[in-house]
Amino acid sequence: MFSLFKKEIKSFLGSLIGYLAVFVFLLVSALFLWVFPGNYNIPDSGYATLEPLFLLAPWLYLFLVPAITMRFFADEKRSGTIEILLTRPISDFQLVLAKFLAGMVLVVFSLAPTLLYFLSVYYLGNPVGSIDTGATWGSFFGLFFLATIYVAIGVFSSSITDNQIVSFILAMALSFIFYLGFEFIASSEIPYLLEQILLWFSINEHYLSASRGVIDLQDVVYFLGMAFLFLYATSLLLRKGKLRSKKHRRSAIFVGLAALIVFFGSTNFLFRIDLTVDKRYSLSPVSKQIASEIPEPVSVEFFLEGELEPGLKKLQREVFEKIAVLNSYADQPIRITITDPYRIGNKEKREELIEQLYQKGIQPTSFRHKNEQGISSKLIFPGALIRMGGKEVAVNFLKNNQDFSGLYNINHSIESVEYELINAFQQLSRTKRSTVAFLEGHGEFDMYQVMDFANSLSGDFDVKRINTDILGKYADNFDILIVAGPKESFAEADKFIIDQYIMNGGKVVWLIDPVQVNTDSLSRGFRTFAFPHDINLGDQLFKYGVRLNYELLQDVICAQIAVNTAPAGAQPQYTLHPWYYSPLLIPSDNHPLSRNLNKVFSEYVSSIDTVSGNGKLQKSVILSTSPYARRVKSPSSVSLQNIDNPPARELFTEAFIPVGVLIEGTFTSLYQNRMVEQLGFSSASVLNESKPTKMVVIADAGLIANKVDYSGTSPQFQQLGYDRVSNRVWGNKEFLMNTIFYLNDDRGVMQLRNRTLKLRLLDEVRLREEKALWQWLNVLAPILFLSVFGVLYNFIRRRRYARS
């Protein structure tokens, strides 16, 4: 067996055709990866990764592996030496196995020069070595497993013909059918069970994880098992009439049944090794649990398709991978379908679909790409509609924080894919909707002033407006209470009702203005005044662990204001100026509630201090100023003259002043050891300590308020966070929605937003200066290595035979 193995290796290395096949493989791979523009080009992608190689390799293997294996048995049959092989003192399967192992060694030999690509990306990384080595070596293992089935198919094809060309074409055809053919059929409208069977036979379905550095037991069993079946079938076909024997027929049936049992058993045993450095393809325990609890089949209609830039391709593959992994843990099937709106030929139907996606909440983004006519722009929809049991949820995967570059936004989007999917599954599985109540009765914002946020909440929650009397009677009916912009003082009885609601585990969002500014006076002139605004909540919030400060914050990072600078009586002329009283607040990047969010628009905001004393509470700052802020004590004047005479830059010395705080844990009642009979309640009914719960305190009520125009027949409201001066929507709504989701999250799903993946980029400066050098190096060096090896090998071989 070993002598036959060596014979095949020597025959390949001693033939011109073998070197030509490897030469073409290395040349084509280098050109696609380093020279030709497109999805596989490593320098153009900007990422320090070899993912393009592992995506391209299956297609190149369709040519390389049949070229290596086409002569294994076909040449033996043509030359008549097959009979000599069959008389050797080894079994037919050992004979086939020797050919197979030789083919595997030759594939590894062909792949070895591509290690130069790894070294190139390693040294071009920013910083050097930023490539994920674990994922890379894991992906090379994936290529090895992929080669097993390709080589086995090639050996099988070579055994049924004596023509090398026929063997080559047949191996290519069979490999293509197994790689994409079954998957193509499965993507058509066929029954789900048949779709799953065909997908299981698809090489691409099993190679997807392996190409990213994830070794899955199911995939390993598939590749090795299918390779064994092809090799076993080859051993049966080597001798004519072998299958006529009852013994061999029984053996074939037994082997087939045993293979089915192993294949089926592997699908019920989940074992994965994630070789990536940051474990980016491993699910969290809560994700596995929620996936296993999905009560009904789920369909995911995904709209990110077509010609995409490398970053969007990465996002697309991440969604596919995560759904595939979740499907492994789910008791019910999760079925994904791809819809590209631009493939709909009928213009009216295409526009109708795009309008439906708008209405359902799929946010499009403009995508520019190069084509033969130049640069064109079109809308793409990086989202999905997830359906289960007659319910539907829209999910947007692409994050767009305008403070970050496109590459960072893509990375943040990839980080949040697991959260977006799990959150959607949880919403669809939930049988009872939680209730969010807006408190009224103390001059809080009316329904129109919070209409945009309330409408956004209504998709996932029941939204009510209540007073403290209703809260006191039916506290268990309300999961989250929002106190938004109260202007009137709270009576002690109202405070007691809210306090006991919290003691019973209720969750509260406080949006309070400690300082009152009359903006109407400012709009009519150039000056107004800011006064402390005490609404009798200071002692209660202090007991819960925070103190609101009677001051205004100014910030260098702020919104702009349009001011009429034309002389009196002249045509109005508005110019833009920074308005320090309108800080653009920064959500904390260290907490899942506020991570990766856009800046938040605010006006006349105050600060918050945390208070120590209760060791059972955990306090987290979730919203703060920029590093360039200052405090202005009240009472104070607020004047538009600050535009012409702004405060000195040296005064803005305070960094990250807290504006929003999250408090979690067990709270102590404000009314502990107090007589409450005068308030109309019994002291015996007072709960002194709360159940574990959460609350958020924000020192700016306007954060939740949208602008309202009351001049018409019915009030018209603008989008929350919209700044008409910059014509931009800030992150108010997303921040507040995350706040409600976090308060309502009892299972830790929001912690998935804390997932961090290192962004591995190429050094753009070095690549721009040395691009041609690296292109020539990666194109020519592997070919030069192959040529030198071939010349030396054949030179040594000739000298050895000449001496003998």
Q: Secondary-structure blueprint of this entry?
A:
Layout: H1 2-13, H2 16-35, H3 42-45, H4 51-69, H5 74-79, H6 82-86, H7 92-111, H8 115-124, E1 125-126, H9 133-159, H10 164-186, H11 192-201, H12 203-210, E2 214-216, H13 217-237, H14 246-267, E3 272-274, H15 285-292, E4 298-302, H16 310-329, E5 334-338, H17 347-360, E6 365-371, E7 374-380, E8 383-388, E9 391-396, H18 406-415, H19 417-429, E10 435-439, H20 451-457, E11 462-466, H21 468-473, E12 480-484, H22 492-503, E13 507-511, E14 515-517, H23 519-524, E15 527-532, H24 538-543, E16 546-548, E17 551-555, E18 558-564, E19 574-587, E20 600-601, E21 608-610, E22 617-624, E23 629-633, E24 636-639, E25 658-665, E26 693-698, E27 708-709, E28 716-717, E29 722-723, E30 728-729, H25 732-743, E31 761-762, H26 764-803
Parallel strand pairs: 4-5, 10-11, 10-12, 12-13, 13-26
Antiparallel strand pairs: 1-31, 2-3, 4-8, 6-7, 8-9, 14-15, 15-24, 16-21, 17-23, 18-19, 19-20, 19-22, 22-25, 25-26, 27-28, 29-30
Helix pairs in contact: 1-7, 2-4, 2-26, 4-7, 4-9, 4-10, 7-9, 7-13, 8-26, 9-10, 9-12, 9-13, 10-11, 12-13, 13-14, 16-18
